[in-house]
Amino acid sequence: ASFGFRDVPEAEKEKLVRGVFSSVAKNYDLMNDLMSGGVHRLWKDVFVGWLNPQPGWKCLDVAGGTGDIAFRIAGAVRKRGGEPDVTVCDINPDMLAEGQVRAEKKGETALTWVEGNAEHLPFADNSFDSYTIAFGIRNVTHIENALAEARRVLKPGGRFLCLEFSQVVVPGLDVLYDKFSFHLLPTIGEWVAKDRESYQYLVESIRRFPNQARFARMIEEAGLSQVKVRNLSGGISAMHSAWKI
Ligand code: SAM
User: Fold this and answer.
1) Residue 70 Cβ contacting ligand 1 at under 6 Å
2) In which element (H, E) is residue 22 found?
3) 147 with 217: CB under 8 angstroms?
4) Structural domain that includes position 239
5) What is the band of 3 on the pLDDT scale with cuts at 50, 70, 90?
6) Would you say 87 is a known binding-site residue?
7) Rounded to whole angstroms, how far apart are CA atoms 117 and 109?
């Protein structure tokens, strides 16, 4: 049955999201390529470029899934001659397991994989130089709890950086994008991954997520400072940067 995920009660959401990502874990790269036409790879490069991680940083990547951001951070730190220290935290053991397989294949040993919820991070206060979250925060039940946790685990002077689908700001592109995402995407998901509902969930979660300005305000309300926004591909995605002062 294709029911609307937006009608799911809050208490059910976490379980539901878990199911979605368990079901897509094996096809995760393919799913991202379908959803973004492959552009997510470039967005992630730009995202880690903006983070500009430095040798010596303790980095945390929340909702890190199969490690796309963490691998890039590790690469960037090595390029600068440093030894990377990156923790990937995700609520879903299947995504983490897939990430660990990828790490083994790449011979990447600098990552630590931790199961945990963005709303209750299993880390001490003031323990990371950077907190990243890419295409993760819209899946969290209470965004404000995740933001409060981001602030808590960051060291004073630490950097918050979020990459998320956002609101298209280019007239014309918005209509096209709407048509693509609402009608085409679940059908592609059904054909390719035999999983219409997971893709439908993803589309709906993108529509419900606050736009650039509203999300920026939420970050400020969580006590993070100097919020800056950069759109990617006309606002299909956006990056929000902030600091813990
Ligand atoms: N950051 C990775 C990337 O960009 O490729 C993965 C993004 S994937 C679309 C979303 C991830 O968020 C999934 O791995 C899912 O398990 C995770 N997730 C969902 N809710 C979460 C929560 N409350 N806490 C931590 N991770 C969560």
Assistant:
1) no
2) helix 10-24
3) no
4) 20-170+209-243
5) very low
6) no
7) 23
- CA dist 243 and 191 (Å) reads 42
Residue 183 lies in a domain: no
Specify whether the CB–CB gap between 242 and 228 falls below 8 A.
yes
Residue 203 lies in a domain: no
In this prediction, does ipTM exceed 0.90?
Answer: yes
pLDDT at 228: 98
- Domain of 77: which CATH number? 3.40.50.150
State the total domains in the chain. 1
Give the dihedral sign, CA 37/164/123/52: positive
pLDDT digit string (tens) for 116-138? 999 999 999 999 999 999 999 99
Structural domain contains residue 194: no
Is 141 known as a binding-site position? no
The SS3 assignment for 216 reads helix
- Residue appearing with tokens 């609520």: 91
CB 98 within 8 A of CB 28: yes
pTM: 0.93
Percent of the chain topping pLDDT 90: 70
Q: Which of 15, 21, 48, 141 to mutate to test the pocket of ligand 1 (most atoms within 8 A of CB)?
A: 21
Query: Which residue type occupies 229?
Result: V
